[in-house]
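Each record in this resource describes a single protein on a pair of labelled lines. An example record follows, reproduced without changes.
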Amino acid sequence: MKAARTRGQPAALAAASAVIGEGGGHAVLLVGPAGVGKTTLAFDLAARLLCTAAPADARPCRTCRACRLVDSGNHPDLHRLAPDGPGGQIRIGERSNAEPGTVRGLISSLALLPVEGGARVAIVEQAHRMNDDAQSALLKTLEEPPAGVTIILCADDEERLLPTVRSRCARIRLGPVGLRDIEAILGEQRAADPPTAARLGRLAGGRPGVALAYAGAPQAVVARAEIGRTLLDLLDAPRERRLTVVRQLLAEAAVAASLLAPSAPAAAPCPRSGRPTPAEPIVDETSETTAAPDPTADGASTRRASAAERRRAAAFLVEIWRAVARDLALVQLGGLQAIRDPALLDDLTAAAGGLAAGASAVFLDHLTRAGELLESNVSPELVADGLVLAWPRRRNAA
């Protein structure tokens, strides 16, 4: 696909093109970290399937009417399904009222004849946010889709999809994108100059979507660096100080996360049990709710954060913490060229001096477990408290 918009994913692009070209890919599963380009690749596949240019190997042409409609998101035979509502889930919908924006609504739409008379494509974004009931409802359509229908699932975590769903899809994995490709993407969209694009690409861990979000929210980049420096300072802090500061970091992370995705649905976990997401955490129900600063207010006022916002803030804090712990481990090993944020190099070097060898690498296991707990609706405050107490302590700390 010469006119594909996907960048930095040659293997995934070639695999997807082969699956679609062979005519056997009626269901495709695109897997990879958030912001790595799954939705972009899904739209490239949709453009190829719906393009009317000749010969077929020239598709997508990006110039025909069908391609222009796909790029604008208005093609009548392109159906999209994404999480919505405060829980950030993909709803199954009512049996008797298959409303749009639900799994049953999508199934009903795909059962109709195509408007343009050709292929039909359905893109399910963040498919891992379907619970078991919603996935089961889609299973029959995945197994035996109507003629001419291709269903493309995009998932950050394929383990949260039922094995029966995964087995009916051609699986294609997308990995991190190279820094040069991210620089090109940000340059094409005039989002950042080359030096800034290179730094944002490092901060984003090879995820172009995240780099673009940082480019549009420079205040979040500043906040991220400040949170990183505070975490390094806590290596010398006693328990009481750590527990106090980590609650402040949660509030700062909430503001930064809202700057990066102010209009996005809250990133609440999607339980595999099929039960609705609880409005409050299932653990430590007596813990206080974080009072997060309101970025739309005059600076002094605060508002009470919802459970979903608290989880999103904790997830963002864990992401920053993981980058700091990773960079600490690299500094201890001498891998200075591979650190995520060169702006913290002096702070990282100073912090690594009194740290036990391998301590930060061991802490990465705690961060992985913390992510699992957040997805299980454990209290974000409890998760943060556990992490800050497990955060290594420098040998020369007072």
